[in-house]
Design goal:
The chain is of the alpha/beta class and 310 residues long. It folds into two domains: 196 residues, Alpha-Beta Complex (DHBP synthase); 80 residues, Threonylcarbamoyl-AMP synthase, C-terminal domain (Rossmann fold). It is built from ten helices and 13 strands. The radius of gyration is 19 Å and the shape is globular. It starts with 6 loop residues before the first helix and ends with a helix. The structure holds threonylcarbamoyladenylate (TXA) and magnesium ion (MG).
């Protein structure tokens, strides 16, 4: 391969060769491969150490590309019109003649689909003849990556290329909505429940009961930095990292702030980066201040609760 190719062309080159690459999205970075290829998608599972039974999300450029693979319905069209491209994933029925690899769906007849907003990844998708399967680019059960460097930390030289799109703007994974029958929220994410309610005229509520938002890959262990996490803490121990929602006047070397002014979007963007940093600094335990549960705070609390269950 010539060295002077653009990064989009390099990405296409590897994907066309059935290799996995890292791609930026507005939520988190993905580990991408040709969703129509058994060979390419099997590499994702190997690299991530992901159980085969945990299906993958497939990323499309537009609706036009999706109709070869999925049955679409009215609820889908309403949400698509309002939020796509953006941080929302739909579970739809797979068409019988779809070319999606069996690895992606674990042989089932449903498919998770998403239309990412990041401009580089959109440019890439526009140039490909197939959609891309891409779970978050982390080893299974670990924290999702929000920068090229994070992906590099996870996989080192095991992947051939990472398309650098800067820091992920949202920093939390997409909201997953099942539209197979009655709509159902399967995972909280980058789009708040009340926004989805408004479009579907539904009444989904934030529920701390984790069982209500279980999808195959959302075991309790998920989002773990591999360190003990304690939530809703006011007084941390001296030797633990203390993550605070907002910058305070007093500052200690073990204090880490998610925001300047308590903006929850900013807190979401900084969450995984901060957890990763604390881990690198070799803290053995993390205390986290109470995070408000309004807006995107629901998603932040969901992730923290899962990360704290070990
Ligand atoms: O923001 C995101 O969604 C990121 C970016 C890269 O797009 N992707 C992501 O993928 O978070 P992953 O694989 O880490 O999480 C996808 C979740 C998994 O928990 C998986 O079990 C679930 O989606 N899933 C995939 N296909 C499904 C299906 N057909 N039915 C129900 N859940 C499904
Ligand atoms: Mg993941």
């Amino acid at each position: 391969m010539k060295n002077n190719l653009s990064n989009i062309k390099k990405s296409k080159y590897y994907l066309d060769k059935n290799e996995c690459i890292g791609i930026p999205t507005e939520t988190v970075y993905g580990l991408a491969a040709n969703a129509y290829s058994d060979k390419a998608t099997s590499k994702i599972f190997k690299l991530k150490k992901r159980p085969q039974r945990n299906p993958l999300i497939v990323h499309y450029y537009t609706l036009k590309n999706l109709i070869n693979d999925c049955e679409i319905n009215n609820n889908f069209l309403k949400l698509y019109k309002k939020f796509c491209p953006g941080p929302i994933t739909f579970i739809l029925k797979l068409k019988k003649n779809s070319k999606i690899s069996k690895n992606v769906t674990n042989n089932k007849n449903t498919l998770a689909v998403r239309f990412p907003k990041h401009s580089l990844t959109r440019k890439l998708l526009k140039n490909l003849k197939y959609p891309i399967a891409a779970p978050s680019a982390n080893i299974s059960t670990k924290i999702s990556p929000v920068s090229k460097k994070d992906v590099k930390d996870e996989f080192g030289n095991k992947i051939k290329f990472i398309l650098d799109g800067g820091r992920s703007r949202i920093g939390l994974e997409s909201t997953i909505v099942s539209l197979l029958r009655k709509p159902k929220i399967l995972r909280l994410g980058g789009i708040e429940i009340n926004k989805i309610n408004r479009v579907l005229k539904a009444k989904f509520k934030y529920n701390k009961n984790l069982k209500d938002t279980i999808v195959p890959g959302q075991s309790k262990l998920h989002y773990s930095p591999g360190i003990k996490i304690r939530l809703n803490i006011k007084n941390p121990k001296l030797d633990e990292a203390f993550i605070l929602i907002k910058k305070k006047k007093i500052s200690n070397k073990n204090y880490f702030y998610l925001t300047k002014n308590k903006n929850l979007r900013e807190a979401g963007r900084n969450l995984y980066k901060t957890l990763r940093m604390v881990k690198k600094l070799k803290y053995k335990s993390i205390a986290i201040e109470r995070i408000p549960t309004n807006g995107i705070g629901q998603t932040i609390n969901d992730r923290l609760l899962r990360a704290s269950k070990k």
